[in-house]
Design a protein that fits this description.
Blueprint (H helix, E strand, L loop, with lengths): L1 H6 L1 H26 L3 H24 L8 H22 L7 H19 L4 H9 L7 H20 L1 H9 L1 H6 L4 H19 L8 H13 L5 H26 L3 H31 L1
Helix pairs in contact: 2-7, 2-10, 2-11, 2-12, 3-4, 3-5, 3-6, 3-10, 3-11, 4-5, 4-10, 7-10, 11-12, 11-13, 12-13
Length: 284
């Protein structure tokens, strides 16, 4: 496997992009889970699907767009979806959760329309839906690296503000923090991560990488920073194990990555139950 990585550029691209995603997806996912916004990742992933399907359709219909990387339109669609979610949340102040199913439904609807209009890109679409080791180009890797820089700069700059907003939104607003603006930027960064991760994990599974490693880490950690660190560790283990499995068994990497992350979650749950039962036995 190591020799193959040094031999084939597509494997270098896939593993480099996977390692980057294994950091930024769980890192952002910690804030998403704590703020109870997990379903927003699903909504934006379906909007991204519409952008990808639309881009593939345009590349068939317009000759000048034949070489357009679908990732660009996917990013545009994802960011647009995040902006629309925030707009709808402000319109339905007492029913903010309505924004998520509205945008999710719109993404599925437009995606279905573009898929039905286009012909002959089922293989390309399958790669975007569930990830593909061989489809990650050097351009895709550079885009993922760019997204990672944006995410890391944003988290480093607004870590304290995000921490306060995550645990006490009312206090953050009362203390004068620009909560609305920070949340808006957070949504855009989330959209960028989802769009950037789809080549490896797949559009339909990317939200899993942002939430399952966090859920696993929360079972064994006692502080917010520990949760971040362990979430990234579990994310990296899932990505690397999933990519190796996908390469050897010719499987969709998105599926192997998610199944690995679920397996880790189950292991941690069983481990915690064993430890709790031992403590109870020792007390008895």
């Amino acid at each position: 496997m190591i020799e193959a990585i040094f031999t084939y550029e597509f494997l270098q691209n896939a593993f480099a992009a996977g390692i980057i995603i294994g950091v930024i997806a769980p890192l952002l996912g910690v804030f998403i889970v704590v703020r109870r916004l997990s379903l927003i990742a699903d909504a934006l992933s379906h909007v991204t699907l519409a952008g990808i399907a639309g881009s593939l359709y345009l590349s068939q219909s317009v000759a000048s767009l034949a070489l357009l990387n679908p990732l660009f339109l996917g990013i545009v669609a994802s960011v647009t979806g995040s902006v629309l979610i925030e707009r709808l949340r402000s319109l339905y102040k007492h029913y903010e959760e309505l924004a998520i199913p509205i945008i999710l439904s719109a993404g599925i609807g437009f995606g279905a329309i573009f898929i039905s209009l286009a012909e002959g890109f089922s293989n390309d679409l399958f790669g975007y839906l569930f990830g593909s080791v061989s489809a990650v180009s050097r351009e895709d890797l550079l885009i993922v690296a760019g997204v990672a820089v944006v995410v890391l700069v944003f988290i480093a700059t607004f870590f304290k503000e995000l921490f306060v907003l995550s645990f006490d939104d009312e206090y953050a607003r009362a203390s004068g923090l620009p909560a609305k603006w920070i949340h808006f930027m957070f949504m855009i960064v989330t959209a960028l991560v989802i769009a950037g991760s789809m080549r490896i994990v797949g559009i339909l599974l990317v939200s899993s990488l942002m939430t399952i490693p966090v859920a696993t880490a929360m079972r064994v950690t006692k502080s917010f920073k520990q949760t971040i660190i362990l979430s990234i560790v579990f994310g990296e283990v899932s990505v690397i194990t999933g990519l190796v499995s996908a390469f050897y068994f010719d499987l969709a990497p998105g599926g192997t990555i998610v199944v690995t992350s679920i397996f880790l979650l189950l292991l941690v749950i069983v481990y915690k139950k064993i430890m709790v039962s031992r403590k109870k036995g020792a007390i008895a």
